[in-house]
Amino acid sequence: MDNPDSQSRRQVLQALASASAAVTAAAALPASAQENTARARAGNQGTIAQLLADYAVKLRYEDLPTDVVRTVKRTIIDTIGCAIGGYEAGPSQIAIKLARNVSATPGATIFCSGIKTSHDLAVFANGVMIRFLDFNDGYITPKGGGHPSDTLASLLSTAEVMGASGRDLITATALAYEVFCKLADVLDTRSIGLDQATILGPAAVVGASRLMGLTAEQMVHAIGITVGGNTAINQGRVGTLSNWKDFACAEASRKAIFSAQLAQAGMTGPSQAFEGRLGFFNAIMRKPFEPPKLGEPYGIMRAFTKRFPLGQYSQTVAEAAAQSRAFFKSTDEIAEINIRVSQNAIKIMADSPDKWRPQSHETADHSMPYAAAVVLMYGTIDEHYYEDPYLHDERLLALVARVHAIHSPEADLHERDYNLCDFELVLKSGERKAVRVEYHRGHFKNPMTDAEMEEKFRSLAHKHLAADRTDAMLRQLWALEHMPKAGALIEMTKV
Predict the structure, then answer these.
(1) Are residues 31 and 50 in the same domain?
(2) Is 453 within the bounds of a domain?
(3) Which long-range contacts does 353-358 make (Cβ < 8 Å, 24+ apart)?
(4) Is 346 domain-assigned?
(5) Three-state SS across 133-157?
(6) How far apart, in whole angstroms, are the C-alpha atoms of residue 223 and residue 58?
(7) Domains in the chain, number
(8) 99-150: per-residue pLDDT in tens?
(9) Which CATH number goes with the domain that contains 381?
């Protein structure tokens, strides 16, 4: 049997060994990782998950300024319109086909079809429909960004399942936007090749958790589960694009629902998923981090609406192309088209030869050269131009080949505020004509009017809903704060 002295010596040696291992592990991390780890050890109260959860459970409808409530309603109108417009798309029908084979109690409804399925699969199908046309809103920062309205797939279905009111849905939407936008402000996902779905997951889980009535502690677990299992790479948005572009965020929203359900049932998740020694910041970003600044000014007020159904970096390009049509009578007069935009715009929408000869709908609606040529030739652009016969129209493609995407350092400087596009036509006569667009129609500094928002909604809904039903739905959406059961909105889209 050990004597007290030998026992003490062994305890001291064990303590020294543990301390040495800890120092060695810390030294192996970059300086920023050591800083993050030190912060994490201060306790969960200082974690980003706790910050998000505390904000989520405290936010009330009454806290939201009038202009935020109005913007939320405009956003929901726009997003539901995009979902109805995307109903017949191939990827949407695949998602609906999978979902219709599953029943659940309580069930959740899929847009337009009226099919009832499980909560998470309804979120997935609805999310694909929202995203397919690339017509829903956007939020851009030099570090990343994406489409915060993709979170509405998780929020609308959760509102239906939970019997939540219109005010509950408005609050949850403002909250989900706040998480998405403020995380986009501080997470440099673009430089490390991560997709927007990486930040959409936490936004969706926080908004849905609020509607589901999770406690702050449960929400921390739900966030940890989501962040730990939903890090999406950006390869699906470069080169030739696949259906992945249509469902990446829908899948993040589906996972968010399951994460919230797990946490509500008692499952635990990593509470330091962001800050931990092997958490998001240390293992993936390897950069210092700063906590998001939640609250006023609200992130949703810096999101923008799309006038054209194409990638957000091409909104100014399409608008400039439309204005440039005044300079010629036939596209045969055009020798070349020079488009000067930010480096990020080029990386995303003019990054490879595929963008000059797109072979898929997804590649075409994310091609700056193709969008410019279509608008120059036809005066507008919609989803029909992303399919045959246009994709293989040699006259159109010959015009696309005359497009040059040129890096503009000036556009880089302004990217936080707007997507600057300097659009130049060089005519065969030798004349040069230029158009500059800073704030496209739909930008928060050049917003679409309510009437324009309604016109966009009607243009998307008219294929499936009669005019009187469309009008009735718009009236209900504008009066959303008075709805006792917001889930009825999905039922109203049934064709």
Answers:
(1) no
(2) no
(3) 354/239, 354/240, 354/241, 356/397, 356/400, 356/401, 356/403, 357/397, 357/400, 358/240, 358/386, 358/391
(4) yes
(5) CCCCCEEEECCEEECHHHHHHHHHH
(6) 17
(7) 3
(8) 999 999 989 999 999 999 999 999 999 999 999 999 999 998 877 788 999 9
(9) 3.30.1330.120
Is the domain of 85 the same as that of 205? yes
The dihedral sign for the CA sequence 197, 201, 207, 212: positive
pLDDT tens for each residue of 185-219: 988 777 787 888 889 999 999 999 999 999 999 99
Its domain, for residue 9, covers: 4-42
Residues 15, 75: one domain? no
pLDDT in tens, 315-345: 999 999 999 999 999 999 999 999 999 998 9
Question: Of the candidates 5, 13, 100, 39, which has an alpha carbon nearest to the alpha carbon of residue 275?
Answer: 39
382-419 burial string, b = 16+ CB within 10 Å, else e?
bbebbeeebbebeebbebbebbebeebeebbeebeebb
d(CA 294, CA 306): 25
Whether the predicted model's global pTM rises above the 0.90 cut = no
Report if residue 229 sits inside a domain.
yes
Structure tokens at 482: 């008075």
* Residue 137 CA to its chain's centroid (Å): 8
Interatomic CA distance for residues 127 and 157, integer angstroms: 10
Which of 400, 415, 437 delimits the end of a domain?
A: 437
Q: Are residues 25 and 85 in the same domain?
A: no
Residue type, 375: V
Rounded CA gap, 140 and 135, in Å? Answer: 15
Q: What is the DSSP string of 186-217?
A: H--TGGGTB-THHHHHHHHHHHHHHHHT--HH
Out of 396, 417, 437, pick the residue that ends a domain: 437
For residue 148 the two structure tokens come to 């915060």
Has residue 483 been placed in a domain? no
Could you tell me if 242 and 177 lie in one domain? yes
